[in-house]
Amino acid sequence: MQKHHWKCLLYYVAIGVFISCSSPKSTKKPQTTTAIPTTPKPVQKAIEKKNDLPLTAATAIPFLQRYAAENTENKVRVETPLGSFDILLFDQTPYHRANFIFLTKQHYFDDTYFHRVVPGFIIQGGNSDNTDTGQKRRKIGKYLLPPDTRNGLKHHRGVVSMPSSEIENPHKLASPYEFFIVQQSPGAYHLDGNYTVFGKVIRGMDVVDAINALPTDKREWPLTNMRMQLTVLTQ
Asked: Cα–Cα distance between 124 and 160 in angstroms, integer?
């Protein structure tokens, strides 16, 4: 593990914080591009041990380090009322990849919403105030992830990134329960260095565009609810 990861881990062990998230801000309008098609088959399994949960600030990184080695899948399908899209998770961000696979296998994201839509910028989802989702979070645990922004990955259109916690957070520790997808074209590069890019949409970017085009209320919540269901895919 890189030194700066351990510094981040020590920081959030000390402050004992949770997942109030800082959402990225918008600057530009996008243009459309074409996504790369892929058709892998779905698979669901869970390898974690019963005594691993709930995760804590002290146990999350060791757990995800082991989980990354034992769970090598790197694709997830996201089903929405407007269609589905597939995400490829990057090996360059092993903790974030493992976290996303882990939460998907725990069915954490199922029946959560894309709760924030900023036209020409992003769609964001995952966290939810629903009772069922809150119960899942309590079972999984309270933890944050260290940033991983020194690998050259940029916020191109279609990438998947993780918002940081809104609390006093000089190390930009990230909420494990949320993600956002950049819809802006050619990208939202003002976010580079502040948020961790950990994947990209490889099929169905037109669905992301359709969600991004939905009318919203003053909170940026779509007027048409966008529930999601996530499934881990085979290679």
From this structure: 10
Domain boundaries, the chain: 3-233
pLDDT digits (tens, 9 = 90+) for 202-235: 999 999 999 999 999 999 999 999 999 999 998 6
Strand partners for 81: none
Specify the residue for token string 């930009």: 172
Name the stretches of the chain with pLDDT < 50: 1-20, 28-41, 43-47
Helical H segments across the chain, by residue range? 3-15, 60-70, 94-105, 131-140, 205-212
pTM (two decimals): 0.80
The per-residue b/e assignment along 42-70, b for 16 or more CB within 10 angstroms, e otherwise, is eeeeeebeeebeebebeebbebbeebbee
Distance CA 230, CA 235 (A): 16
Query: Angle of helix 94-105 relative to helix 60-70, nearest 10 degrees?
Result: 80
CATH of range 3-233; options 3.40.50.720, 2.40.100.10, 2.40.440.10, 1.10.287.130: 2.40.100.10
- With beta carbons less than 8 A apart as the criterion, state whether 179 and 161 touch: yes
Report the DSSP beta bridge partners of residue 122. Answer: 118, 182
